[in-house]
Structure prediction request, 170 residues.
Amino acid sequence: MTTKSISKHNKSFAIAQKEQYKQKREAEKREIQDLYTKFLDKKTIQDFIGIIANYKQLHNYSIRNILLLLAQSEKREHKEFVGVVNSFTNWKKQNIQILKGSKAYKVRVPIFTKNIDEDSIKPATEKKEKEEEQKKTLSYFKLGNVFDISLTSEYSNYIKEQEQIDKIIM
Prediction:
């Protein structure tokens, strides 16, 4: 019996490898969901109010992702967790390096698909471009990796800046 292989971007995977990867990703999703549920069960309304007040600088992240990050930092007993997170690529664009051996936090990343009107395949005008943007719909969520600033080379500078800000405010 021969196994078919599926190629993507010059890589070839056996069907068994693809299935194994899929099962691994599903298990990872279930683990993150279980962690999130356990975290929520332990918290009260006052805890949530405090969390929202303390982590309002995470304006690009949903409440669910903020709570997911906190649940993961609590599980890891990561005392230095600040809540200033970014993807590996975005830290790299800012010329900030991730410390060797750092483990990424998982967040849910929305994936949108564009609904294309097959009747009009003409070059889009500005008005049509705006309409097309509005036709994007949420398809699913995937797990993405982010790193806290405490896992980067800039953590000491961040702490110094925060201390200076605190001195000015107080």
The mean pLDDT is 78. The radius of gyration is 21 Å. Residues 12-169 form one domain.
